[in-house]
Amino acid sequence: MSAVTSLPRDEESESLSSLPWLFLRAVASLADAPLTDIAERLRNAMLPYLKSSALVIFTEDCTGRPQKKAGEESIISRVSIAELEKLRPALSGENPVFTEAEIAGRILPVLALEHVSSRAMLVVTDPHPGAGSYGAELDVVKYLWRIAARRIQEKIADAPPSYLLESRAASAERLRVTAELTDMHSTTLETLLAALRSASLNDAAARSTVTDLAGKALISIRALSDRTTTAVEEPVARAFERLREELRPLTRFSGIEIQFIEPPLNGRALPGEVAHAARAIVRGLVLTMMEQTDISRIRTRWDCDGENLLINVRDDGGGVLTADSASVRGLERRVKALTGQLRMEVMPGWGADVFVSLPLDLTTRPARDAAGWNLAARELEVLELLVAGHRNRTIASTLGISENTVKFHVRNLFKKLDVGSRTEAIALAHSNGL
C-alpha cells in the first residue's frame, strides 16, 4: 500500500494562490447566470481582457427577448435587430470580426462574433484590449462568449412553463406593435406618394426625387416588418432539421436507430417558442425511451394540420414506460405551458407511442373577473397600468399615490397571482384577456 504524500501548509497555500481566481470566478458567474443577467455578467467577465462601451447579444432562440444588453444606456436603448442583422453576413464561423457598423443610429467600431450551433451573435461596441494590445486576450473573450452562448441554449432548452408563457406573450405583443407601426408609416408614405404624383405639382424633378426616396422608405419599413416576423417564427422544415442535428450524436454512439419522418415542406412556420419547445420535448422523450434495456429503434415524426404542430415519438421497447414517470410528467408540464396536449399509448411487449399536439396560435381566453384573483379595486388599477407598460413612477403619478404605495400593491399582486416578476404578471394578465 503506497503512502499518501500531502503538501505542507505553506506550499498548499502558494499553489492555491497561483490559480487565476479572477478568471475562474468569471467562468463560474457565467455558468449559472440567469438569462436576465447574462449580458451584464459576460461584459463584466470580459472587462479585464476587452474594454467596451456596450455589449449586445442577439439570439433568435429567445423569441420574447432576442436582445440581451449591457453598457451605455444611449446605445443599448436604441440598438435595433435590423442593425445587428446587417453585421451577420460579415461573420465567418466563430472568428471575431473587427469593423465599423451602424449601432443605435451611430457609426461605431465594433467587435462581432457568432456562436455557430445556435447562431447567437455577440456585438461589442468601442472595443479595445484590456492590456494594451490584442493577444491571448482575444482567445479568452472567445472562450467566455462560448460559455455564455451555451448557457443561453441550456436555459432555453430547460425553460420552465413561466418562461414559455412570458416569451409567447412578449412575442405576440412585439408583433402587434410592429404591425401597428408598419400600418401607420405605410399609410403616411402611401399618402405622400399620392400627393407627389398629383398633376398639380409642376416641379417634375422634385416630384421624382421625393417619390424615389419615399418608395425606398416604404420598402425598408416592409422589410423591417418581415424581419421582425422572421425573428419570432421558424420554418417547420428548418426546425425539424435542427432537431435532427441535435439528435445525431445519439444515433452515432448509442447503437439505437433513430428514424426521422419529416413534416411537409410547405407546412406553416412555427412560432419560435413552439419550435424550441418541440425540439426539447422530442429530445426528452428520446432520452427517456433510450433508458430502456430492450430497445433498438425510435421513430419521431412531425406534421402540421394548419393550426397545430403534431408530434409522434414511438419506440420498439418492451412497453414499460408510464405516464406517471417523473421525466414524462416534466415534459407534459412543458406541453401544457403552451396549451398543448400529450397522450401516451403503451402496449406491453410492443413499445410506447407518444402523441403531442402544440397549437400554433395564442389561445384567447375569456377575461377573468377580478374576484377570481381576489384583487382590490386599486390593485386591479395597478395591474392594468402594469399591462400597459408603465413604470412605478408613472403609475404613482396616474393614480395620485406614492411610489412606495405602488410597490406595496405590486407585492400584493405577485402573491395573489402567484407570480415572481412583473413580466410574469403581465403575461398572466394578457393570457386572460386583461
From TrEMBL:
Q: Name one GO molecular function term.
A: DNA binding
Residues making up the signal peptide according to the UniProt record? none
- One GO BP annotation here? regulation of DNA-templated transcription
Superkingdom of origin: Bacteria
Keywords per UniProt = DNA-binding, Transcription, Transcription regulation
Question: Which Pfam families does the entry link to?
Answer: GerE
Show where the HTH luxR-type domain sits: 368-433
Alphabetical list of InterPro entries matching this protein: HATPase_C_sf, Sig_transdc_resp-reg_C-effctor, Tscrpt_reg_LuxR_C, WH-like_DNA-bd_sf
Protein's UniProt name:
LuxR C-terminal-related transcriptional regulator
